[in-house]
Amino acid sequence: MNLHWLVNKGKGIPVLMYHRIWPNVQDRITQTPEQLRDQLSFLKQNGYRSLTLPEYIEIAKGNQHAPEKGVLITFDDGYYNNLTYAYPLLQELHFTATIFVIGDSLEGNLSMDDPLNRKMNFEDLKSLDSKHFQLAMHGFHHENFKTTSLTNVQSALSRTIEIFQQHQLPFVRALAYPYGARPKDKQQFDQLKVWMNHHQIEAAFRIGNRVSTIPSTDMYEIKRIDIRGTDKIKEFAIKLQKGRLKPF
C-alpha cells in the first residue's frame, strides 16, 4: 500500500504515545508486537529518525536544528512487556524511545502478578541500554494532577526525583502528566510551571493529539499523539501527519 502522501510534511515533530505491547490484544492502550513492528518499520521506510528525549528537548527549546523527519517515541507507565516486546524491536531497527516511569515502581511496588499489567522494577529498568530507552517521570503513584492539590503534586514529583537519585538510575528531568491531566485552575498550573522550572524539570508532556510545535510555545504543554491498538497502519500514517483521525 502506498502511503507516502500521508507522511508528515508540516512543521513540528510527532510525539507518539504508547502503553502496553502484548500478543493477540488490541485495545485502547494495548498493541500487538506485530503492530508495533509494522509501525516502526513504516517510520524507518519513510525516512524518520527517532530522537532521544534530550535531543527532542533541545530541539523544542530552539537550541538545536530539527531533522527533516524526526519523531519522539514514548511509552507510559513502564510495563514489563515493553522490555519483552518493544526493546528488542528498538534494538533491531536502531530506534530509540522514552519510558515515562511511575516512581513507585522503582521499589517494586507495582510489579503485579498480572502479566499484562506488570511494571518493571529497578533492576529491569537498570538493564535497559539508554541508546534505546531513556527514562523520565510519570508521577509517583500515577496521580491525577487535575484533582490533586498543588502541594501533593509537588511532593509526588519531588519523591520521584529522590527515588531515581537514590537508586542512581539515570533519568531525564521531564514529565508526562498521568492521564494527560494538568491542574484545572490556571493560577495553580502557572505555579506548578514555576516550580518545575525551579527544580530543573525541562519539559512536560500532555496528550492533545497534535503534532508538537517546534520550537515549542510552552515546554510544559507539549502535545503527544495517542497511538492505539485499534489503529490500522493507514490510520497510524494519518496520525503522524495530523495527530488525530478526525478532520476537526
What does this structure look like?
With 248 residues, the chain is an alpha/beta fold. It has a single domain, classed as Glycoside hydrolase/deacetylase (TIM Barrel, Alpha-Beta Barrel), CATH 3.20.20.370. The chain is built from 7 helices and 10 strands. β5 (70-77), α3 (80-93) and β6 form a beta-alpha-beta unit. The longest helix is centred in the middle third of the chain and has 17 residues, at 150-166. The chain is globular. The chain starts with 14 loop residues before the first strand and ends in a 6-residue tail after the last helix.
List the helices and strands and how they pair.
Blueprint: E1 15-18, E2 20-21, E3 30-31, H1 33-45, E4 49-50, H2 53-60, E5 70-77, H3 80-93, E6 97-101, H4 122-126, E7 133-137, H5 150-166, E8 174-176, H6 186-198, E9 203-208, E10 222-226, H7 233-242
Parallel strand pairs: 1-5, 1-10, 2-3, 4-5, 5-6, 6-7, 8-9, 9-10
Helix pairs in contact: 1-3
Features:
248 residues; alpha/beta; TIM Barrel; 8-stranded parallel beta sheet; two-stranded parallel ribbon; 7 helices; 10 strands; globular; disordered N terminus
